[in-house]
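YM 10:42: Neuronal acetylcholine receptor subunit alpha-10 sequence, as discussed on the call
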Amino acid sequence: CFGAEGRLAHKLFRDLFANYTSALRPVADTDQALNVTLEVTLSQIIDMDERNQVLTLYLWIRQEWTDAYLQWDPDAYGGLDAIRIPSSLVWRPDIILYNKADAQAPASASTNVVLRHDGAVRWDAPAITRSSCRVDVSAFPFDAQRCGLTFGSWTHGGHQLDVQPRGTAASLADFVENVEWRVLGMPARRRVLTYGCCSEPYPDVTFTLLLRRRAAAYVCNLLLPCVLISLLAPLAFHLPADSGEKVSLGVTVLLALTVFQLLLAESMPPAESVPLIGKYYMATMTMVTFSTALTILIMNLHYCGPTARPVPAWARALLLGRLARGLCVRERGERCGQSRPPESAPSPQPPDREAGPPAGPCHEPRCLCHQEALLRHVATITNTFHSHRAAQRCHEDWKRLARVMDRFFLGIFFSMALVMSLLMLVQAL
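YM 10:58: structure's back
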């Protein structure tokens, strides 16, 4: 029985291909267009090269059409209604991927076709496609991409070959999940375009692959370290000025952010639109730069020497008064919310000679009026002591002003870093 079936298949093959040629379009009427049904099944996303904007996919492509010269009566061949033959023996539509990104020939020419008795030809072939895809990284790493795959005939116009999609979207039943991209869908759309080279229309089918990036790895490796570093930068205002590490902390944080910025630039394509995480890095680096510059200015206020001018009256009233009470910057022994009343630097006074012993001759041999040199030395020591106290009080005022400015900018920059970090993390939700 099996031998008879094999002989019938050989006889059918000889009868079908006795006068058959695969070079011509298999239609009975040359004015009639041949309908080709195209179906695509997405199997795997192999690679998405953002820098070169190339998408590599593993697809299963099914094409179906009717060959008017490959028909037979199943009853004449023992009920044989379908045979499988090499695809190189039959006419095949020259449907290719228009936006392919390589010059290699498709690896689907060696598969067989299924030929039915009514002339229906089904050609299933796997293919690895490399297509160009315009990548928009403005929202990286929370971006979504749309990559189109356009299939159409290269030489046959719409009057000779018509392409129709099977269904409204590609099949995702056998898709292997990708670790970096989440597939949202792959809708199909038929278009009819007229190109400048030819007058007749050319139909094509475009499958649009909708992708959304899985941002968990980028959040852990690029975003979260930057958030922690940005929250560490404002703490330079909390360091004591005598530690000598305030400026060093800002410079170290700035260098760390520069390293992360370089790592990001290596993986992203050079484009006009800056990625979202790149904007966050730039904003954080700008904030750290300004905080370091303000730290240097505050250090200059802290180390004002004895020859510095007294704190201006407006700064004493506004900063050492109201702002110090609001920020709870107090001296030792003061309660929070109260501040030391402003003191004016006392000016050294010359000794009051009228309060001393009366001038003139004195009948006492040990009278102090005879010790004029001693009195002048005592007056000099008193004036020096008062000047030293005034300079010391002025220096303490500048140090307190530096502490107030440290506390004020600590709140400002920490709030800025927290708000920017929360805005970035909200994008991940």
